[in-house]
């Protein structure tokens, strides 16, 4: 049990580091390439070349890791399909790239809860999922500004407050039939959360 927890924690920690590193190093690489094209590579200092090589190396390692994780997850799904005689769809993995993700077989109305860090999995019927919803955090901020009013032919600015509302930290939340099991929460961006919520309507209401 401890070994499984450590593997899962390690995979989550790696994801939290690798994905931002891929973005940052990718942007840095693009910036260096643009600079070399615009100003010629001969004007790059030794430190600049070293930073360029470092950013390219980090970007390549991050991409390699993400590709390896994807192949590992797909291999686990293929193994489950072979062992259980299912048709789980490895193109729709709820929760990926987290080490804990779900895949679905619409024809047999079964799902698999997969743990890519350890290779463990559990098969459940669709009836195991009793509810799903999209959740988010709402932030209201007050912004002070001015409104132009005409007073006796002259423009006068009077203070006014405006409420600006933002929605962040979107998640898809699944509740299951096991009352001792906490709700399953999958953080994602807004479009992905709304898309998965609509997909759950199709999966669990059919």
In short:
The protein contains three helices and six strands. By secondary structure, the chain is an alpha+beta fold.
Features:
6 strands; 206 residues; alpha+beta; three-stranded antiparallel beta sheet
Largest sheet geometry: 3 strands, antiparallel
Mean pLDDT: 78
Number of helices: 3
Helical coverage, percent range: 40-55%
Number of domains: 1
pLDDT < 50 runs, ≥5 residues: 148-156
Number of strands: 6
Principal-axis shape = flat
Beta percentage is 25-35%
- Rounded Rg: 25 Å
**Class by alpha and beta content:** alpha+beta
Strand order of the largest sheet: 1-2-3
Distance between the termini: 36 Å
Element order: H for helix, E for strand? HHEEEEEEH
Per-chain topology:
Layout: H1 2-39, H2 46-84, E1 100-105, E2 110-115, E3 120-125, E4 129-151, E5 154-176, E6 184-187, H3 190-205
Antiparallel strand pairs: 1-2, 2-3, 4-5, 5-6
Helix pairs in contact: 1-2
Describe this structure in words.
The chain is α+β, with helices and mostly antiparallel strands. The chain has one domain. The chain is built from three helices and six strands, in the order ααββββββα. The chain has a three-stranded antiparallel beta sheet with strand order 1-2-3, with helices on one face. A three-stranded antiparallel beta sheet has the order 4-5-6, covered by helices on one side. Helix 1 (2-39) packs across helix 2. It starts with a helix and ends with a helix. The model is unreliable at 148-156 (pLDDT under 50).
């Amino acid at each position: 049990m401890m070994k499984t927890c450590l593997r899962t924690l390690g995979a989550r920690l790696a994801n939290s580091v690798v994905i931002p590193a891929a973005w940052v190093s990718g942007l840095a690489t693009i910036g260096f390439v643009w600079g070399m094209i615009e100003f010629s590579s001969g004007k790059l200092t030794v430190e600049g070349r070293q930073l360029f090589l470092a950013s390219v190396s980090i970007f390549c390692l991050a991409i390699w890791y993400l590709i390896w994780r994807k192949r590992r997850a797909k291999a686990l799904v293929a193994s489950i399909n072979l062992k259980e005689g299912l048709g789980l769809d490895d193109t729709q993995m709820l929760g990926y790239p987290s080490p804990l993700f779900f895949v679905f077989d619409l024809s047999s109305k079964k799902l698999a809860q997969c743990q890519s860090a350890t290779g463990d999995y559990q098969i459940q019927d669709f009836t195991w999922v009793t509810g799903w919803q999209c959740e988010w955090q709402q932030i209201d901020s007050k912004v002070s500004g001015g409104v132009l009013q005409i007073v006796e032919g002259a423009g006068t600015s009077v203070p006014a407050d405006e409420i600006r509302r933002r929605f962040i930290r979107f998640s898809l939340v699944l509740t299951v039939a096991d009352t001792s099991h906490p709700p399953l929460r999958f953080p994602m961006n807004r479009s992905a959360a709304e898309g998965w919520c609509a997909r759950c309507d199709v999966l669990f209401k059919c």
